[in-house]
Amino acid sequence: MNKSILLGLLAAALTCSTGCMTIHKAANKGNLAAVKAFLLKGTDVDARDAYGRTPLMYMVSDPDSVRYLLAQGADANARDDLGETPLMKAAWVGQLDVVRLLVEKGADVNARNAAGETPLMRAVRNLDVVKYLVGQGADVNARDGKGESVLLKASVSGRVRTVQYLKQKGAAVEGGAR
């Protein structure tokens, strides 16, 4: 059977009778073959679900899927209803390869979500991601909507090495001292 026919049948099978979009369900399950089938069928690569999320946002744990979606034109700076970007989601899960791919495609390292958090704040649990983002110009002194700094978030998370690194890079200690 022809591969494109098979992918078309798969996409048809994944579309519910009421026309609801399930590319997001396929993306959430990490099913790149099904996502490809939806795209082949004409689904927008940046289609939004009820939460404003795109397939890319669901697939940030898989570099191959992210690479594919970006090659198909996925927006590296798309925002969901909470202002979260794919970069914030990749930083949160500590997926350095995906963080690199997104930044290479123009993802904003200082973007802010609705809570005022930046990708660097979301990355404090992963020192390698923190180092990469700082190297790409992430603001080490950014504060979220509650006034909490990146350094405070790393401290509260118990990330001693991240705290030390941020201080070396000029992060202000609470109270203004460095």
Explained architecture:
This protein has 178 residues and is an all-alpha fold. The protein has a single domain (44-168), classed as Ankyrin repeat-containing domain (Serine Threonine Protein Phosphatase 5, Tetratricopeptide repeat, Alpha Horseshoe), CATH 1.25.40.20. The chain is 49% helix and 0% strand. It has helices at 3-14, 23-28, 32-41, 55-58, 63-71, 86-93, 96-104, 119-122, 127-135, 150-156, 160-168. The mean pLDDT is 91.
Topology:
Layout: H1 3-14, H2 23-28, H3 32-41, H4 55-58, H5 63-71, H6 86-93, H7 96-104, H8 119-122, H9 127-135, H10 150-156, H11 160-168
What structural keywords apply?
single chain, 178 residues, mainly alpha, Serine Threonine Protein Phosphatase 5, Tetratricopeptide repeat, 11 helices
Task: Summarize the entry for a quick read.
The chain is an all-alpha fold and 178 residues long. The chain is built from eleven helices and no strands. The longest helix has 12 residues, at 3-14.
